[in-house]
Design goal:
- The protein is an alpha+beta fold.
- Helix content is about 20%, strand content about 30%.
- It has 3 domains: about 20-110, Immunoglobulins (Immunoglobulin-like, Sandwich); about 110-385, SGNH hydrolase (Rossmann fold, 3-Layer(aba) Sandwich); about 400-500.
- The protein is built from 10 helices and 24 strands.
- The radius of gyration is 26 Å and the shape is elongated.
- It binds 2-acetamido-2-deoxy-beta-D-glucopyranose (NAG) (5 copies).
- One 2-acetamido-2-deoxy-beta-D-glucopyranose binds near residues 131 and 132.
- Its EC number is 3.1.1.53.
- GO terms for molecular function: sialate O-acetylesterase activity.
- Keywords: Hydrolase, Signal.
């Protein structure tokens, strides 16, 4: 028979592991087949253990002298920052936990660039749902170094330390994982972005997908970010995915401690009629806040201004100017019309207004063509995130609109390819010089064009012509048939609104 003292010792030794509620493990988003962020940044690795224990992390591989790192477990958490590692692998990452004498081995780990992909349903839209899905899925196995991870759909009232669930653990791509349940896994925009990027960078790319259909930007924003835009964090009575911060808490906050290269985002539809007029604050504000938080969480390894790419809204309703899409497109750029700009540094945007899809089996709000938006995002990433000098990633943008005697001249910042069709440009003719309502705007025709400019006809206007706008409707163009593109025809001019001056144009003639 055990003496009482002995039995309580046995019990407490047994209970120490359980009573802390923690078992020895890596956090949810470290696993075999993962990509860790490559040099020059250092990758952060962390997990859970028994307070007081030591965790010995070791990294080994055929061309590597084994590296070891010792991490004490403090408050149930251990954490270490690896030395900077060049792209490549495979490596084996082992964590050994002293008090239980147990090890966890992660195999086939590569170093590369990690991109986070987030947003609503157009980001959740899977590879199985895109146009040419069969070809895209068949190609999956040719890209074993583009690896995927996906957080499960979870929401929380408070900030979580680790993900509450994992939808796809780190994996090499397979048709089954990429084209799983509709809107469940894996994101087509995320995957195609990673695959196209891999073809250019030629080293491993890790894709971390964390998105949820039908969700507003407020759900993905911290209370601190919302407050800066004058939004109160909602007092949650009936919590749902529209509640402020619930997805930030459960699907972004847990990821902050991993080192990442950048993020891409496809969201905004849910804000077309929800805090729409605040989106020019909430969206840039969320980007700032994520940047600060990822930088802090990784102890400075993720850049404070990490590159952030996004898709400008496509189209939804053919003839409903009140669906809010035109305003959100503008607000996505902090009302500049283009990015990067002074408010949104180190960002890039894929314009999508010219790839509408009225017949999409998933509804017109979900265009089937994700290849074009991913391609445009990759141009942005190459130019902005990777500093490639020769990559054009922005369509033409006007520098001036000048009112002359017979024409309004619009000068663009690059050479253009123009088609002279009516109905895309409008001018504001108004007594009070305000152009706030649609009845102040009159369509005008393009009468001719040159290398980097167009002439618009001047319609009768008894008052003043004060502004011009372009593609200012929910569904302005047919597929890839807007009137103004870059000279090579690849990139559309985004929608804009611009004041008209009387100054002689400086950059034409
Ligand atoms: C720890 O585990 C190893 C491998 O299972 C074993 O060889 C060793 O004896 C153990 N050490 C202790 C202190 O239990
Ligand atoms: C789909 O495949 C067809 C035939 O190969 C090709 O012409 C088309 O460009 C593809 N569409 C996209 C969006 O990739
Ligand atoms: C955002 O847009 C609203 C509505 O158009 C406007 O009133 C406000 O001044 C804009 N705010 C910023 C910060 O640009
Ligand atoms: C992750 O980063 C946050 C923010 O800096 C910090 O509060 C938290 O303790 C970190 N978590 C881990 C597990 O290191
Ligand atoms: C950029 O393009 C120019 C002109 O086409 C070429 O001379 C130059 O080598 C290119 N630079 C890079 C880095 O590709």
């Amino acid at each position: 028979m055990l003496t009482p003292v002995f039995s309580s010792l046995v019990l407490s030794a047994f209970a120490t592991v359980l009573s802390a509620g923690e078992v020895f493990r890596f956090s949810s988003y470290y696993g075999s087949y993962m990509i860790l962020q490559k040099a020059p940044a250092k990758s952060v690795v962390w997990g859970f253990g028994q307070t007081g224990a030591k965790v010995v992390v070791s990294l080994s591989g055929s061309h590597l002298l084994e590296q070891t790192y010792i991490a004490p477990v403090i408050n149930g958490i251990w954490r270490t920052t690896l030395k900077p590692m060049e792209a490549g692998g495979p490596y084996t990452l082992t964590a050994y936990h002293s008090t239980t004498n147990s090890s966890i081995v992660l195999k086939d780990v590569l170093f590369g660039d990690i991109w986070l992909c987030s947003g609503q349903s157009n980001m959740a839209f899977t590879v199985g749902q895109v146009i040419n899905a069969t070809e895209e899925l068949t190609m999956a196995s040719k890209f074993p170094d583009v690896r995927i991870f996906q957080a499960a759909l979870e929401q929380s009232k408070k900030e979580l330390t680790d993900l509450a669930g994992v939808e796809v653990p780190w994996s090499k791509p397979t048709p089954g994982l990429l084209g799983g349940k509709d809107f469940s896994h894996f994101s087509a925009v995320c995957w195609l972005f990673g695959r196209y990027l891999y073809e250019k960078r030629k080293y491993p790319i890790g894709l971390v997908h964390s998105s949820w259909g039908g969700t507003p930007v407020e759900a993905w924003s911290s209370p601190r970010a919302l407050q800066k835009c004058g939004l109160k964090s909602s007092v949650i009575s009936e919590q749902n995915t529209w509640s402020s911060s619930v997805l930030w808490n459960a699907m972004i906050h847990p990821l902050l401690n991993m080192t990442i290269t950048g993020a891409i985002w496809y969201q905004g539809e849910a804000n077309a009629n929800y805090n729409r007029d605040k989106y020019n604050c909430t969206f840039p504000g969320m980007i700032d806040d994520w940047r600060m938080a990822f930088h802090e969480g990784s102890e400075g390894q993720t850049a404070l201004d990490f590159p952030f790419g996004f898709v400008q809204l496509c189209t939804y309703k053919t003839k409903d100017p009140t669906d809010g899409f035109r305003e959100i497109r503008w607000h996505q750029t902090a009302d500049y019309g283009f990015v990067p700009n002074k408010r949104m540094k180190n960002t890039f945007m894929a314009v999508a207004v010219d790839v509408p899809d009225e017949k999409s089996p998933w509804g017109s709000i979900h265009p089937e063509d994700k290849q074009d938006v991913a391609f445009r995002l990759v141009l942005g990433a190459r130019a902005v995130a990777y500093g490639e000098k020769n990559v054009t990633f922005q369509g033409p943008f006007p520098t001036q609109a000048v009112l002359g005697n017979s024409y309004i001249t619009i000068v663009f910042n690059q050479d253009i390819k123009a088609s002279h069709e009516d109905g895309y440009f409008e001018i504001c003719c108004s007594e009070d010089r305000k152009c706030e309502t649609d009845d102040k705007w009159t369509p005008v025709a393009i009468s001719s064009s040159g290398l980097n400019y167009i002439f618009l006809e001047i319609p009768p206007c008894p008052a003043s012509i004060t502004a011009v706008r372009y593609l200012w409707t929910d569904w302005p163009c047919k597929f890839k048939a807007c009137p103004i593109y870059s000279y090579d025809g690849l990139l559309p001019a985004p929608p804009f609104i611009l004041g008209v001056t009387n100054q002689r144009p400086t950059t034409v003639f």
